[in-house]
């Protein structure tokens, strides 16, 4: 299957939407959103989804293992830790304070111990993305650090966002 042109993505291509209001501190010296902020956005929508739909309870669950992507830890009774394996993003339009954004989340690939996320960043009300990016997490055992199947609740929640990377439609 041919790789999709990410610039052609639409908000409806994503199964989960989260609004984000940019902050003054998101801007860099060139008056557009700093590159590192995009990864904060990606991490925020993924973890919000894991909390809302997959049973992640970071405030009350015991934290174990390692720091997992750049910013979060995972409770032992819900998920096993995961490693941030790779990441990417493409920019199509500038974003800056005081823009309001709509973030879209989809899963392009769901393995037994890994998940590939894609996040679309849209200016609120716009049909074309300002940026599209994502990353792959590999779930690992806290002691062994070896690839470990993800918890059933996690798999069920993530499967609702599964859209093969070459398609725009979901199997919901």
Q: CATH architecture, please?
A: Roll
How many helices? The count is 2
What is the radius of gyration?
Answer: 16 Å
Order of strands side by side in the largest beta sheet?
1-3-4-5-2
Mean pLDDT: 79
Describe the largest sheet.
Answer: 5 strands, antiparallel
Helical content stands at 10-25%
Number of folding domains? 1
CATH topology description: Thiol Ester Dehydrase, Chain A
CATH superfamily: Hotdog Thioesterase
Instruction: Return residue spans where pLDDT drops below 50 for at least 5 consecutive residues.
Output: 61-85
SSE class: alpha+beta
How do the helices and strands follow one another from N- to C-terminus? EHEEEEH
Number of strands: 5
Shape: globular
Family: Belongs to the 4-hydroxybenzoyl-CoA thioesterase family.
Domain Thioesterase: 31-127
Keywords: Hydrolase
Pfam families: 4HBT
Summarize this structure as a short list of keywords or feature phrases.
172 residues, alpha+beta, Thiol Ester Dehydrase, Chain A, five-stranded antiparallel β-sheet, 27% strand, fatty acyl-CoA hydrolase activity, Thioestr_dom, hydrolase
Q: Would you write up a description of this structure?
A:
With 172 residues, the chain is of the alpha+beta class. It contains two helices and five strands. It has one domain: Thiol Ester Dehydrase, Chain A (Roll). Helices cover 16% and strands 27% of the residues. The protein has a five-stranded antiparallel sheet.
Write the layout of secondary structure elements.
Blueprint: E1 16-21, H1 35-54, E2 82-91, E3 100-110, E4 114-123, E5 131-139, H2 152-159
Antiparallel strand pairs: 1-3, 2-5, 3-4, 4-5
């Amino acid at each position: 299957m041919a790789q999709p042109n990410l610039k052609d993505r639409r908000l409806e291509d994503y199964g989960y939407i989260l609004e984000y209001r940019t902050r003054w501190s998101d801007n860099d010296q060139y008056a557009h959103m700093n590159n590192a902020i995009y990864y904060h956005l990606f991490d925020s929508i993924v973890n919000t989804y894991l909390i809302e739909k997959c049973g992640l309870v970071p405030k009350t669950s015991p934290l174990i293992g390692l720091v997992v992507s750049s910013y979060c830890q995972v409770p032992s009774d819900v998920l096993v830790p995961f490693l941030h394996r790779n990441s990417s993003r493409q920019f199509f339009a500038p974003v800056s304070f005081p823009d309001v954004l709509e973030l879209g989340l989809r899963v392009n690939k769901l393995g037994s111990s890994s998940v590939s996320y894609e996040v679309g960043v849209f200016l609120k009300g716009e049909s074309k993305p300002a940026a599209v990016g994502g990353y792959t997490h590999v779930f690992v055992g806290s002691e062994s650090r070896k690839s470990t199947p993800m918890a059933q609740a996690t798999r069920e929640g993530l499967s609702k966002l599964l859209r093969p990377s070459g398609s725009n439609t979901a199997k919901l």
